[in-house]
Design a protein that fits this description.
The chain is mainly alpha-helical. The protein has one domain: CRISPR-associated protein Cse2 (Peroxidase, domain 1), CATH 1.10.520. It has nine helices and no strands. The longest helix is centred in the last third of the chain and has 29 residues.
């Protein structure tokens, strides 16, 4: 079966976590570099590049869409994993799944939506999310996501598990063309705002 951006990211995260024996040197370099072309990013090259499909590799020195997406997701994972012994990555349950969701991961913007439920977080978080959803190029989007993940890590009150494989897939899809980028932004907006809308509607009925 051909590898996908999602499955490669998932596999790399599990290697970096190594059942709790974290590769701390590589994770530190991942946290300190937002682009795969950064000098510190070279720490992950032997592990990451060896696992990409041939058509995912750059032969010009200009990173491919897949390289950018996978590296960015690993950078986000490293930010979240810092200071945590448990694995902060887990795939999100499929729609209609009856699995134990307390042990499952969440799409990033659903995790941010849970943080938004606290009114103390809402205004500032809304501004950052709305600014990010207005962006139309990938580098600014990656930087914006880095800031949001920093907020999520700092303010989450429960054990955080995020589906970084899905983040990688979304970032890859967003680079394919403008229309797909717009669709990804809408998807993120739905994940962020819709759960809170349902919650506010429920509260209104109770009142």
């Amino acid at each position: 079966m051909p590898k996908t951006v999602r499955t490669i990211t998932q596999g790399l995260i599990r290697i970096l976590y190594n059942e709790g024996n974290l590769n701390r040197a590589v994770l530190a370099n991942l946290r300190g570099s937002t682009k795969i072309t950064d000098t510190r990013a070279q720490a992950i090259w032997p592990l990451m590049l060896s696992r990409l499909e041939d058509n995912m590799l750059s032969y010009t020195g200009q990173p491919t869409k897949q390289e950018i997406a996978i590296y960015s997701a690993l950078h986000f994972y490293a930010l979240c994993q810092q200071g945590n012994d448990y694995l902060v990555y887990s795939p999100a349950p499929k729609k209609g799944s009856d699995s134990d969701q307390s042990k499952e991961g969440m799409p990033l913007f659903k995790a941010l939506a849970a943080l938004r439920a606290n009114e103390d977080n809402r205004d500032g978080l809304d501004r950052r999310v709305e600014n990010l959803l207005a962006l139309t190029e990938i580098s600014g989007t990656v930087n914006g996501l880095s800031h949001l993940i920093g907020i999520l890590k700092a303010r989450s009150e429960s054990e955080l598990k995020v589906d970084f494989g899905q983040i990688a897939q979304d970032l890859y899809d967003a680079q394919r063309n403008y229309q797909r980028f717009a669709q990804i932004r809408l998807l993120w907006g739905q994940q962020y705002f819709w759960g809170n809308y349902l919650e506010s509607q429920s509260e209104g009925k109770e009142n």
